[in-house]
């Protein structure tokens, strides 16, 4: 059996759950979990923001202000993400995150995720 015989597929949800109201965000996040599981993916990965701003993000870049509204409209509480995690676990799909803020990294412990990704754009800061 070769390396490519059993790939680990990650469905990228990013901030596609973004919406002006929290309830819609949560519903959309759950829909992405369901769609990823139904497609046969092993995991679904979201971008995790808590209070995105130049002050809170460790990888803020010039021009990011154009994304700020979308990022703010993707914020969910820890309780909301725990609901998403519960549904991911029930669907037998891993829940993963890309983090952009130090405080958001702390959520990973409470969510008991198997893996996470520090935003690749942060590499420009090191």
Structure description:
The mean pLDDT is about 90. This protein has four helices and four strands. With about 130 residues, the chain is of the alpha/beta class. It is about 35% helix and about 15% strand. The longest helix has 18 residues, at about 20-40. It has helices at about 20-40, 70, 80-90, 100-110; strands spanning about 10-15, 45-50, 95-100, 115-120. Helix 1 runs parallel beside helix 3 (about 80-90). A four-stranded parallel β-sheet has the order 1-2-3-4.
Structural class: alpha/beta
- Helix count? 4
Number of extended strands: 4
- Rg, Å, rounded: 15 Å
SSE order, one letter for each helix or strand? EHEHHEHE
Low-confidence stretches: none
The percent range for strand residues is 15-25%
Strand order of the largest sheet: 1-2-3-4
Quaternary structure: single chain
Helix residue percentage: 25-40%
Mean pLDDT reading:
90
Please tell me what the overall shape is: globular
Please name the defining characteristics of this protein.
alpha/beta; four-stranded parallel β-sheet; globular; 4 helices; 126 residues
Briefly summarize what is shown:
This protein has 126 residues and is α/β, with parallel strands linked by helices. The protein is built from 4 helices and 4 strands, in the order βαβααβαβ.
Please specify the SSE layout and strand pairing:
Layout: E1 10-14, H1 22-39, E2 43-48, H2 68-72, H3 78-90, E3 94-99, H4 102-111, E4 116-118
Parallel strand pairs: 1-2, 2-3, 3-4
